[in-house]
Amino acid sequence: MPDDSENQDSLEGIFQGEISSTLESGTRTKFKPWHKPRKHFVRLYQWCYETRQLLKRLKPGDDGELRYLGLPGEDLLDIRVLQGVCQKFKVKLRYIGFDSSLTSAQLNLSRHEVNSGNFIHPSSVVTSDRLEELGSLDSMAYQNIDRHSPFDVINLDLCDSVTASAQDGIIPNLEAIRTLCDVQIKRRGQPWLLFLTTRAIRENLDQKTTQLLFDRLLKNISENSGFSATLNSKLKLNEAQIKSEMEATASLNKQGWLSAYVLAVSKWLLHYMMANGYVVTVRMLPSYSYSVRRDDRDMVSLAFLLEPASLLREDDTQLTKRRQTVVPAASEIQLAEELVDQIARIEDIDEKLNLDSELKLKMFKKCGALLSTLRYDMVAYRDFAAAD
Description:
Elements: H1 5-12, H2 37-58, E1 65-70, H3 77-89, E2 92-98, H4 105-115, E3 125-127, H5 140-148, E4 153-157, H6 172-187, E5 192-199, H7 207-223, H8 225-235, H9 239-246, H10 254-274, E6 280-290, E7 299-308, H11 332-344, E8 347-348, H12 349-355, H13 357-372, H14 378-386
Parallel strand pairs: 1-2, 1-4, 2-3, 4-5, 6-8
Antiparallel strand pairs: 5-7, 6-7
Helix pairs in contact: 2-3, 2-13, 7-8, 7-9, 7-10, 8-11, 10-11, 12-13, 13-14
């Protein structure tokens, strides 16, 4: 969680408000898991905070824009909070959202409300495409991405697992991420953010996918003693435990498996962005876990900063003068060790809020204040939020 006062003040101003003690009834009482106060913590302290940090770095100017791809849902909650960030930087949020429920009356109302804002780009759109369709370069989904790219922020807020398999062993969500990364590599010369929310349940991962995912970790362990040592010291994981998961004997406890799974997915992304001549560094930013429908932490909200490396070259013929010191890009194994360190720091939001009653109350009030503007019943919301 960010702790610098300047950014805290800015985050406090996004949908600031408190639920009145005299609660008025709204008309909407059907709540979803993403209406929980803990999800609003993610929206503010991960999505908004890191987007703000990126904008500070890019310095887009008053006439600039923030290009965003997301899976917003019918309330467009991510768009609403990020609009607040853009307003503070006086840039327009230019978004494209994928939502197959495009005919929803609530979604249409939300689009009208959001797009009426002064800091929403007029080209913003929600389409009926599905993320998994990006695996096909002939799809309308790909054509829409091709038209709106590149992006400053890509937010894949999944309800299921990023590694959920379809028929023939194809993993649609990974295919989609690969397509998005290819587009960004081709067109994006500046840093960009990838937010990835995914279920992390051992029983939902088929054995073939487990073997392919964890095989990359085994190679790193066997080829680099420094990585192996970091893995053992930071996450208490070793080669024998990884092999046991691949062989379906499951020796890891729940926390160990969560760490191994997050590392395997993150390492897949890192390897893809660094292989085949690409030089795009991948660094995990502060990330979080929480529980959706069980006592175990079964959902992770990950944040990554991806940055094309500046490869400075010198003329070894000495026919031109020396310009500046060549700074080599970080190697894949160095970045892999950084991933291990960041994964060890992943915070449990449920535990964090339960231990900090003031923060928990603040997230309840802030999320409730936002939902009340969307005609949700606040009496019903209080009961829903208290059910954790």
